[in-house]
Amino acid sequence: MPTEKIPLVSVIIPMYNSAKFIPQTLESLLYQTMKNFEVIVIDDCSTDNSVKVVEGFKERFGGRLHILKMPKNTGRPGIPRNVGIRAACGKYIAFLDSDDLFTKTALEELTTLAEEYQADIVHINNTFAAFKGKALRVDDPRFSDVAEITNPENLEPSKWKYTTHWFAPEPLPAPVLESDNLEERIKNWVKFEYRMPNCTNFCNRKFLMNNNISFPDMVANEDQIFLFKCLCLAKNFLSVPNVIYIIRARIGSTMRTAHSHNSKEYLQKWLTIINSGINELNKIVNQIPFFQQHAEYKTAVFEFFFRFNVHINQNLSYDQNRTGEVYPIIKQFFNADNAPLAAYLLADVKNSWSRLKELEAENERLKKQKNIEQ
Q1: Which of 77, 147, 257, 359 could form a disulfide bond with 248, CB atoms 3.0-4.6 angstroms apart?
Q2: How far is Cα 189 from Cα 196, in angstroms, rounded to an integer?
Q3: How far apart are CA 81 and CA 15, in angstroms?
């Protein structure tokens, strides 16, 4: 294959029933200032006309758009992404969800940074959350509907008011090339110093292939495991302040759908995810000598993953009177040695959440009292 035909970037998009959303996603790629990229859409057996919609864009991409089809529905984005990674030709891999968008200069900015710093991973420190053409905070009450961005030429960050803080601190002021000191990276991991969504990682493809890095077969939060392995193995890990990814909330999305707070099924689902995640983390840390020499960091990684997943799912905060009901469920998902620890951590997080709610209520009461006195 002639050198000029090899794309610099492969954009991987897993897709399932996204006919209503993926046109704008693809439009955001057509308006990229950098053109040397390919797009790989992996359809997870959609039951709507998603594939037909994507095929309608093929001519506009001039041979740069490829559609792959899974033999059967996986019900999760990680496995289709793995198929995309194996099919990719680009030096770098970017991940884009089928209902999200890139800003116009996204790929140009990311490739420039990756080349300048010879990065294995470029980790984006911030993202937009879009609603009706504007970027909002993720906790905005309107962050529950489909964003209507009708003109991709207007995808300019400067025109939007807010950026969303997705489980991470304030954006970095400048790119930071981290040392390969794994101890420091793990300390940052357990302090929420990295963003978890997979869209925040721009990867060197050879780095992924040489280190056998892929997404685990998990119902959700496979992106956390992916990022953790990258953190452990990357020599050049670059964290950047560039805000180039636009998350569009939509009803029905796997991770953005409301559930019953006292649902036994929901508890079982997330305990399954937590247990699967801990098993995957265990596979990673057992291959890295650092964790054999520092068992306390291994424990810290597991505890962080557990607490993170409980905190972002308030549904797991069963009230105190149901502890006897919850513990038998926990035993189904953890072995005999780990079940008591899991039950303890769940109760501990639950108590912390309850105390936080009490403090918020007290703070609100004091505010009202102060207003009355004034």
Answers
A1: 147
A2: 10
A3: 10
